[in-house]
Amino acid sequence: MVITKQKKPNVIKIGLIGAGRWGKNIIKTSKKIPSIKLSCVASKNPDTRNLVKNDCKIFTDWRELISYSDLDGIIICTPPKTHFEIAQSSIEAGHPLLIEKPLTLDLEEAKTIYKLSTSHNKLVMTDFTQLFNEKFIALKESLKLIGDIKFLITKAGNYGPYREDIPVIWDWGAHELSILISILGCSPTKIISQKINEKENQYGDESIWNIRCSFDNQIESSTLIGNMMPRCRKIGILGTNGMIVLDDIGKIPLSFYKDWNRKEFPTQEGIAIEVKINKEPLAIVIESFLNLIKKGINKHWSLSMGIEVTRLLHLC
Q1: Listed residue (36, 69, 13) closest to 285, CA to CA
Q2: Hey, what domains does the chain have and what are their CATH numbers?
Q3: Do residues 308 and 181 lie in contact, with contact meaning Cβ atoms separated by under 8 Å?
Q4: Strand ranges (DSSP E) for the chain?
Q5: How far apart are CA 178 and CA 299, in angstroms?
Q6: Burial category of 99 from C-beta neighbours within 10 Å (exposed 0-12, middle 13-18, buried 19 and up)
Q7: pTM of this prediction?
Q8: Coil, helix or strand for 53?
Q9: Euclidean distance between CA atoms 133 and 117, whole angstroms
Q10: Full pLDDT tens readout for the chain, 316 residues
Q11: Rounded to whole angstroms, how far apart are CA atoms 103 and 234?
Q12: What phi, psi does 71 have (nearest 5°)?
C-alpha cells in the first residue's frame, strides 16, 4: 500500500468520461452521495445536459476533460476498446481512475495500465460492482455453514443489453470470474468456454455461454451467462455440509440448503440467512474510490483483479 502525504477535501471533484448506459448509472448514483461533486462530463450524448446539474461542465472530447485543472479523479465509462488510450492519458495527466469492467479487451494493454499506475504512483480501480454488493459480502461471511467447498455454480443474464463494442462473454464474464476468484482467493488453473446458443442481432452480440473452471484442491465451477435469457444473477457454493445460494434479484437473497449434495441450484426451500442492505453496490464502489482519494491511497486490489480477469477472458 502506498500512501501520499497530501489529503483531499471532504468533497471530491470527479470527472466522468462516457454517459452511456453505465455512465448514466454513475450520474444517478452520484446524486445520492454527499461527498462527491460531478464537476464535468465528457460525452457526445445529446441528453447529457439534462442528466447533470447546471454547474457541471460538458465536454464533447475526453481530452478536454483530462486537461481540466479542477479535478480530484476520473471515472471512465466508455467502450472497453477505448479504455487503454483514455487511461494512459489520464494517468500521465496525474488523475486517479475508476474504470468500468472489463479493464481492457487486451492483456498487454491491461498490464501496461498497471505499469503506468505504479510508475506514476496513481490509483487505478476496476469497477467490479458485484464484489461490493452487501449480499455477496454476506455470502462470503456465511461460508462456514457449508464446510469445505467442493463446487461453485453461477448464472447471470438478461434479455440484453446488445452491444457492438463488446462480446457477451467479456461483458457478463468479467463479473462472474471476479466472483469466483474472490470466493476462492485464487485464480483457476484451467478455463474452458463454450458458446451454447446465439442469434443474429443487428444491434450487437446476442449469445449464451458456459464457462467451466478448475481450481486447486479439485474444486470446479460452472458459469452460465448471456443476454438472451430471463433476468437472473445467482451464485451457488456447494460444500461438504450443503449449499449456500445467493439470489440477487430474489425475495430471499441468501439461503442455506443443509445436506444438498448436487451440482445444481436447489429446487427445495432453504433456510433464509439475514442480510442487511444499507447501500446499493455502485454507491459503495464510488464511495470506496472517493475514500481512497481522500486518504491518498494509490493502490487497490481491483486493478490486479482486472488484469487477471482480462487474462482469463483472453484464454476464453
Answers
A1: 36
A2: 12-129+282-303 (3.40.50.720), 143-272 (3.30.360.10)
A3: yes
A4: 12-17, 36-42, 57-59, 73-76, 97-100, 124-127, 149-159, 190-199, 206-214, 220-226, 228-239, 242-247, 254-258, 271-272
A5: 18
A6: buried
A7: 0.94
A8: coil
A9: 26
A10: 544 445 445 899 999 999 999 999 999 999 999 999 999 999 998 899 999 999 999 999 999 999 998 899 999 999 999 999 999 999 999 999 999 999 999 999 999 999 999 999 999 999 999 999 999 999 999 999 999 999 999 999 999 999 999 999 999 999 999 999 999 999 999 999 999 999 999 999 999 999 999 999 899 999 999 999 999 999 999 999 999 999 999 999 999 999 999 999 999 899 999 999 999 999 999 999 999 999 999 999 999 999 999 999 999 9
A11: 23
A12: -135, 145
Residue reference for cell 486537461: 67
- Enter the C-alpha cell of residue 162: 446488445
Cell of 305: 483483479
Query: What gap in Å lies between CA 74 and CA 160, rounded to an integer?
Result: 28
